[in-house]
């Protein structure tokens, strides 16, 4: 278990050096922090490590999944909804009832457990990306899917 780890990568190519800082959420299982092959840093032909673009690290669907799992593990449903439900969708949900009631229904219907299962399955998989609509889709056994929509570099869960 890693708690509040800050990873700082110094990447150098000759005289130019850049620093990339990635924060791994508290209480994330170690296996959840392993990089996905497509977004991991890779050695260049000169042997120096090149950092992936910041958007690939900070704003990836996979990092969203890892952060969501950490919040679900802590049972911090309020932050989960406020962070990973699109603000327009959250407004629709809370127009007729307070967020506490929305969360109570979510937990009572055991949707939190279903969400954990989908996220754990998707965590180390490559999503199907629709680059036109900015949607990442993860399928589990052909019957269940979880989709994320990118808005301004942030990934939000889509309610299907």
Would you kindly provide a brief summary of this structure?
The protein has helices at 54-58, 61-74, 77-84, 87-95, 99-108, 111-123, and strands at 6-13, 16-23, 42-43, 49-50, 128-130, 135-140, 144-151, 154-157. It is α+β, with helices and mostly antiparallel strands and 160 residues long. It has one domain (6-157).
Outline the structure in words.
- It is built from six helices and eight strands; from the N terminus they run ββββααααααββββ.
- Helix 2 runs antiparallel to helix 3 (about 75-85) and helix 2 (about 60-75) crosses helix 6.
- Residues about 1-60 have low confidence and may be disordered.
- It has one domain (about 5-155).
- The longest helix has 14 residues, at about 60-75.
- By secondary structure, it is α+β, with helices and mostly antiparallel strands.
Helix percentage range? 25-40%
Q: Could you report the average pLDDT, rounded to the nearest whole number?
A: 72
Put simply, the count of helices is 6
Gyration radius, rounded: 17 Å
Number of domains: 1
Topology order in helix (H) and strand (E) letters: EEEEHHHHHHEEEE
Strand tally is: 8
Low-confidence stretches: 1-58
Largest sheet: 4 strands, antiparallel
For the termini, the CA-CA separation is 32 Å
* Overall spatial form: globular
Binned strand content:
25-35%
Biggest sheet strand line-up: 5-6-7-8
SS-based class: alpha+beta
Pick out its properties.
160 residues; 8 strands; two-stranded antiparallel sheet; globular; 4-stranded antiparallel beta sheet; alpha+beta; disordered N terminus; 37% helix
């Amino acid at each position: 278990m890693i708690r509040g780890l800050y990873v700082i990568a110094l990447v150098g190519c000759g005289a130019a050096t850049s620093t990339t800082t990635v924060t791994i959420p508290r209480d994330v299982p170690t296996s959840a922090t392993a990089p996905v092959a497509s977004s991991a840093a890779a050695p260049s032909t000169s042997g120096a490590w090149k950092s992936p673009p910041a958007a690939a690290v900070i704003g990836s669907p996979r990092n969203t999944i890892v952060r969501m799992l950490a919040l679900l593990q802590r049972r911090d449903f309020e932050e989960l909804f406020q962070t990973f439900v699109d603000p327009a969708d959250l407004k629709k949900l809370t127009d007729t009832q307070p967020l506490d009631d929305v969360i109570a229904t979510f937990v009572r219907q055991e949707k939190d457990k279903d969400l954990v299962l989908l996220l754990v399955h998707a965590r180390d998989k490559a999503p199907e990306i629709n680059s036109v609509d900015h949607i990442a889709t993860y399928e589990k056994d052909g019957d269940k899917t979880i989709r994320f929509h990118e808005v301004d570099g942030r990934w939000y869960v889509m309610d299907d």
